[in-house]
Here is the input.
Amino acid sequence: MPAKTILSRPVYGTLSPQTGKNHLFIADAEGAAAILDLAKKAPDGFFASAHIMFIPEMAGNQFQTALRTLKPAQFYEGPSVAAALPRLRQTLANAHMGLRLYLTGSEGLIGQAMQVALEAGIDHSSIQTEHRGSWARRVQCVHCKGITENVTTQPATCAHCGLLLLVRDHYSRRLAAFQGVCINAEDPSEIPQKEEIFR
Amino acid sequence: MGINFRQETFRDDFTFRNSPEFIRRFPFPFHEDAYMYAVNIEPHVQGPKGTVFENLIDVDEHYVAEMQDRAKVLAEDPLRCQSLPHMTLAGWDLLELLMTEQAKGYPEHFTLTRDGDRWRWINRPLGIDDTFTFGDLSTLPYGPMEYITRQSQGDFCILDQRDGNLWMDAGMVTTQADWSLDFDIGMNFFEWHAPVPLAHEKGIFTRALKFLTNIQQGKPARRLNWTMTINPRLDTSPENYHKWGPDRTTVTPDNVGDKVHLRVELQSFWRLPRSNALVFPIRCYLIKMEELVTVPKWARRFHRVLRDLPNELVEYKGLTRYRPAVIDWLSKYDDGTPTSPGFTPD
Here is the structure.
C-alpha cells in the first residue's frame, strides 16, 4: 500500500468475514487470493450464502478452481469489469437487508464496483475492501470529462481530448476516478517526461 | 437611488473595472502584514454603510455583467450547476433566502410578493417578473437553486449535514478559484478540501467543521479567503485551465497594474430552515493592482504579505510565475512605514 497522501484518496483494509445473511464478493485478478485468505478465517457454511463475481484479467486460470472449491451459492466469471457491471447492478437492485459487500483486487475494480453500490444506496463505509494487484488508475480529465482507464504513467495523455494530464491523488468515489489536470496549461511547450509510476 | 450597473466583461476584451467608491468598499482580507491560514470565522452581521457588509447578501455594480458571464459559462458547460436528487428542498430554501435578502437590501431593484405559496418575483436589473408556486418545480423554468443563482452574484455550494459531516451535494459554481464542482460533488468536508496544503496538519478543517455543523438558523457566519487572478476573469475553473493558464505567462513590469488582480472570496455560511442543509455562498471580488494601490495602506500591506508568503501557498495558489514581477511593482508603493491594524483604509 503506498503512503497515505491526501484525505480524498481511498484507504483499503483487509477482508474479514462479516455477520450478514448474504455475502457478495467482487474481485479481479489477484483479488481472488484475498477471498481465499478470508475463507481461512470464515465460519463453516459461510460461502453457502455467498455470490462470487470474478474477473480474471491477467490472472488467467490460476484462481477459478480454488474459488469454486469454496462452494459459493453462485459463481460468475466475467471477461471484463465493464461486462460485469450490469449483472452487479441487477444483483444489488434485488438485494435485501443483510447483504454484505466485499470488493477486492485492482483499484479500478474496487472503485467501479463501489460506484455501482453507492448508486444502489449502500453506504461506502459499510463495504469491505482490500487492494491486491495493480495500482493502475482510472482518471477523469477535468477538461473534457472523459475517463481514461488503466493509467500507469505520470503525466498521462487523456485518451479523449489528448491533453497531457497531471494525475492527482484527489479521488471521487462518485466518478470512481482520480482527477487529471493539464500539466502544461500555462506553457504548452513544456513537455515533461512520462514516468511509469502506477503499477 | 439605485446602483449604477456597469456594462463590462470578464473575458475576451476584459473591460471590468471598479469605480472609485467600489474600490473603497473592497473587502481587503489582510488585517496584519503577514498571512497564514486560520479559522478566521466571525458572525455574518451587517456592517457600516459603504462596506460589502452593508447587506448580508451584497449586490454591487458588477451584478448584471456577472449574471451575463454566468449564463455564458452555463451554456458552454451545464455541469457547473448540479444538484443531487435529495437536495431539491434545500434549493427552495436557498431561493427563499436569496429573494428575501435581495428584496430587503435593494427594494429599488428587487421585489418579492407572497400570497401563501403563490410568489411573485420582480428582478428589474435583469428584466424578470415571474409568478410561481413555492415548492412546485413545474412553475419555474429551472430547478429552484439554478433559478435563483442565475440571479445572484457569487458561487453557491449547498451542503447536506449527516453523520457529523457536511456533504457537497449541490452547487452553482462558475466563478471558482480552481476547483471542480463536477469532481467534488458528493464529497464530505475533508475530502473536498483534501488538496489544500498545510491546513489539515494545523487542525484547521477539524475545527472549522465543528463550528459549521453547529451554525444555527438566523445566525450566519463568514470568513474571507484570497488568491490572485491574471486578467479580471471570473471563470478560472480547472475545466478551462488550459484556456486561461497561459494568461499567467503574460505578466510584464509594464502591465502588472492592469492585468494582475487580487481576488477575494467572501464566504458565508447559513443554516437553511426546511432542509437543515447549510448554504455556503462564495462571493468573488476582484481588484486591479492599480486600483489597490490607490489605498496606500493596502499597497504597503499587500506588498509585505506577498513577499513573505510561504512557498507551499505560493505554489497552491498558482502565483509562482508572476509573483516576483508583482512584488517588484508593489515595492514602489511600500516606503516601509508601519501600517495600522485592521482591514480598513486609513
